[in-house]
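Run log, item B.
One chain of 170 residues. Sequence copied directly from the ordering sheet:
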Amino acid sequence: MKKISRIIDRVERVTLVWTILGLAVIGFIQVFGRYVFNYSFTWFEELGRYLTVFIAFLGGGIGVKTGSHFTMDLIVTHLKRPWQQILKCTTSVLSALFFVLVAWYSWKIVFRMYGYENTSPAMQIPMYLAYLPIPFFSMVMGFRFFAVAFDFIRELGPKPPDGPSGEAIP
């Protein structure tokens, strides 16, 4: 299971890096073309917008896994150990429920867009494809917040006994 998780993590990180790089190249080409050749590609701005949404939601899922999101932990740091874990678990579960709710409603929007058969103005791609990263990565964030909450619950269990040197016995 850990091997599969590492593969998924690697795919996510590589995808994020290449997508950010692609967005930077698209922006450079757009600016270069506009100021040097006085020509602007109409679909570059639209693609940049869709890639930005993709990057934000993919990066958000990675941020949940690594714990790198901004947190306000003034209260948490002043609590004793079991209450810290309980509060962290509660906030993780609430965050997970929020992203599951976002995923639910955004899936409804994606299916509605699929039924309407709308296309984007410049690129002429189906609009449901532009909206697809939102429910997909919201589900990923929801599952990851549940996993983080499960880890906090697991830490609530008894600690292993200490050895003679004061270190935990594995």
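Observations after the first pass:
- The chain has one domain: 2-156.
- Residues 81-116 form the longest helix (36 residues).
Flagged for discussion on Thursday.
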